Amino acid sequence: MAAPVIRSVDRLPSGVLRVTSDQGIEGFGQPVPLGIALPVLGGRISSSREGLRAGVAPALWPSLEMACLDLEGRHRKAPVYQLLGGPTRTKVRILTPVEGPSDEALRDGVLDAQSRGAAAFLIPLPDPARARGFTSAVVRRLEALRKAGGDGSDYVLDGRARLTPGEASRIARAVEGLHLLWFDEPCVTGNIEAVRKLADETVTPLGFGVSIQEAPAFQELLRAQVIDVVRPHLSRFGLTEIRRIAVLAEAYYVAVAPICEPHPTAAAASLHLAASLPNFVIQELPLSLTPSLKSGYAGLSAAAGLQS
Amino acid sequence: VKRREFLASPAALGALAQAQEHGGRPLGAAAFDGLGSKLRITGVKVFGVSLTQESDRPYVFVKIETSGGLIGWGEATLEGKASAVMSCVEDFRDFLIGADPILAEHHWQSMYVHTFYRAGPVIGSAISGIDQALWDIRGKYFGAPVYQLLGGPNDARGVRGYYHARAGSRPELEELRANATRDGITCIKTGLAGYFEWIDSHSKIQRAIDQLVMMREILGPDIDIAVDFHAKTSPAVASVLAKELEPVHLLFIEEPCPPENAQAMRKIAKHSTTPIATGERLITHYNVRELIEEGIVDILQTDINHVGGITALWKVAAMAGLSGIQMAPHSCEGPIGALAAVHVDASIPNFLVQEICSGVTPGPAEKIWQEWMGFPVMRMVDGRFPLPEQPGLGFTLSEDALKKYPFAGTRPMARVFHSDGSVAAW
After folding, report:
1. Residue A205, number of CB atoms within 10 A of its CB
2. Is B97 within 8 Å of B41 (Cβ atoms)?
3. pLDDT in tens, A248-298
4. Is the pLDDT of residue B23 over 80?
5. pLDDT bucket at B138, cuts 50 / 70 / 90
6. Could you give the CA distance from residue B378 to residue A189 in angstroms, rounded to a whole number?
7. CB atoms closer than 10 angstroms to residue B143
């Protein structure tokens, strides 16, 4: 079967990018910013993604690549994870963010999400970050959640890069016995020596990626042995580049937990990506986009393209 | 044409190959006439031996025959890849038939260097089997057990060993303690239950810790406990376990992460005072260099059936000893390699403990080993494997004895999967 040839690229009112083939098959990518002119790709072969990338604004690329893969999957009547070499797994573990102003609100959020099939939760640090007794407040929060959610509940602590490496280290140490899945973005990564000190001082796994703009930064963190969960953002790197970053992580026995926009198209793409990576561990997605969770897992669709 | 240029040309390589075929002896063998022995290798035989039809690790035994009637046995068992190793042993016939078996190091170098690609597990195991057989012949030729040729024994009582046991229920562990104490066993190795993802859940990690804490509590302070992580944990998960298990005072944690990335293992070692052991999947002394020189491990466990036989296991021990690293050779295959390892153990100054994949109560395999060799093979007396007293590797084995267990083909090792269907390590 010949690869699809692109007839047009346009943007729906929702911002969703649409690529249409000369046979009238459509592929969709996550919403793109309005201010950027769309590339003219008529007559190009949609599978030739490296070739297409050269002429596309970086801010558009992740969405355009998503749309091209969706198009190609629909054209070949295959789910995208098959095109990406998968599936490597039959279901996808989900990390559910829980928000709330207090420990009680978070506990209620966890219990509610549990009743809807969630098993792993992303938990914010207490506010304000530098209050007296802050470390104890973090421990108290997580201990209370583990007690409420039970031994089968798992937690990621969301640091949002607000702490100094030293503060992050004190907290990471204090929660070691709780066996968090990991401590996410405990500090900024600009100074690798500061991160190294943190990583040397704790066995709580560390995740980085929310604020990483360039793929080589992951290589630096991996080479320094300071990262346990690689978290590339789908909107920044796109599906193929994340697969390359995942390969790098694999060589260090490091897990990948990509981040994506809370948007249905991006969420669908993230599940297809998860189903193609060998070292995938968990996908952060809100409950609203994972309506049929079961024991912490989302199912995979066998539909063509990125459809879920 | 100058000689050096000629030798570098493809035509010369063809001519060299021909010389080998017509001479009746391997290339380079004649150069040692008068300096080696008068023995000549007349036969290289390889046997696949399946104790059961389903065995994933049929033994691969190598028998080398010589003009003087001396024969040597070696083991080249490679779990899950029996046929490949058997073919590889056959591939080395041209290196051996007509050669002097006494030149063990020379043959090792030739098999390794002239293989061009050096060696992974298949080639390493084939070289291991041949090397052990050559050392068996060397011992018989000199009338000495191999450990004497290697400069031993260091302790006439034998070499300290350990058996395997499951970190099971309380009554199981109490029975284990009683039996181990009765038999003078000073060390037990166990594994981690379950399979781990590279980031894993609290419940799995806590269960693993609780199990080992209970094992220490019941076995008491006088029996050493080693734990095999079997490379099924990532550096992230292994670091948590290794640190939290510090108060259990394990003898060592084995293979806390997979073997390709030494720096990843270093990360685990930095987080725990528990000694780290590794090496059963490493081939030749070249591949332990980084682990040794960077101070990543405390104990090396290269396997005499894969690392390159007696020659290479001794070299690993020599390199390790200079850094204060101890040896606990892996042995989970057949009786020949296990006995060969005991000879190396008995002669090296930095020996810690010898593995045998068996329980305090012997299993069906040991019964067959005894039937083959006429003595209780690799069974400890007072916590030690006794030293063989006969020349060579110290046993006799007949081809007829093996016929009861014909080769039933290669079978894959265990293949396990996580609950989401993805590939898991055991």
Report:
1. 28
2. yes
3. 999 999 999 999 999 999 999 999 999 999 999 999 999 999 999 999 999
4. no
5. very high
6. 54
7. 10
Residue with tokens 């083959």: B372
- Distance between CA atoms of A244 and B47, rounded to whole angstroms? 45
- Residue A48: left if φ>0, alpha if ψ -120 to 50, beta else—which one? beta
Give per-residue pLDDT as tens, B102-137.
999 999 999 999 999 999 999 999 999 999 999 999
pLDDT digits (tens, 9 = 90+) for A110-158: 999 999 999 999 999 998 777 789 999 999 999 999 999 999 999 999 9
Give the chain B residue nearest A119 (alpha carbons). Answer: B201
- Asked if A297 and A71 count as a contact pair (C-beta separation under 8 A), the reply is no
* Distance separating alpha carbons of residues A270 and A280, to the nearest angstrom: 11
In 3-state terms, what secondary structure has residue B24? coil
Alpha-carbon B318 to chain mean position: 16
Query: Which two three-digit tokens encode residue B201?
Result: 């859940």
Name the residue among B243, B257, B421 with its Cβ closest to that of A253: B257
ipTM for the predicted complex:
0.92
Verify whether the Cβ–Cβ distance B240 to A203 is below 8 Å: yes
Peptide bond before residue B362 is cis, with ω within 30 degrees of 0: no
Question: For residue B323, with 0-12 CB atoms within 10 Å meaning exposed, 13-18 middle and 19 or more buried, which class applies?
Answer: middle
Using CA atoms, how far residue B84 sits from A197, B88, B291, B332, in Å, is: 47, 6, 28, 19
Q: Percent of chain A at pLDDT above 70?
A: 100
Tokens 């000495």 identify what position? B144
Beta-sheet strands, E only, within B173-223 = 187-191
> What is the residue-averaged pLDDT of chain B?
94
Under DSSP, is residue B161 helix (H, G, I), strand (E, B) or coil? strand
Q: Do residues B203 and A179 make contact, with C-beta atoms less than 8 angstroms apart?
A: no
Task: Let me know: does A277 contact A306? Beta carbons within 8 Å.
Answer: no
Which residues are registered as beta bridge partners of B252?
A: B226
Which uninterrupted H or E stretch holds B402? helix B399-402
B230 is known as an active-site residue: yes
B35–chain A Cβ distance below 8 A for any pair:
no
B365 within 8 A of B358, measured Cβ to Cβ: yes
Query: Residue A233 is encoded by which pair of tokens?
Result: 């953002």
Taking 70 as the threshold, does the pLDDT of residue B15 lie above it?
Answer: no
Size of interface A-B (CB pairs under 8 A): 94
**Is B285 among the residues known to form the active site?**
no
pLDDT exceeds cutoff 90 at B351? yes
Identify the band that residue A66 occupies on the pLDDT scale cut at 50, 70 and 90.
very high
For the cut 60, the answer to whether the pLDDT of residue B7 exceeds it is: no
User: What is the number of other CB atoms lying within 10 angstroms of the CB of residue A295?
Assistant: 11
The C-alpha atoms of residue B310 and residue B73 are separated, in whole angstroms, by: 12
Name the catalytic one among B106, B164, B230, B271: B230
Q: Which of A66, A54, A57, A53 is nearest to A16 (CA)?
A: A66
Of the candidates B240, B271, B420, which has its C-beta nearest A89's C-beta? B420
Say yes or no to pLDDT of B6 above 70: no
Residue B9 pLDDT level (bands cut at 50, 70, 90): low
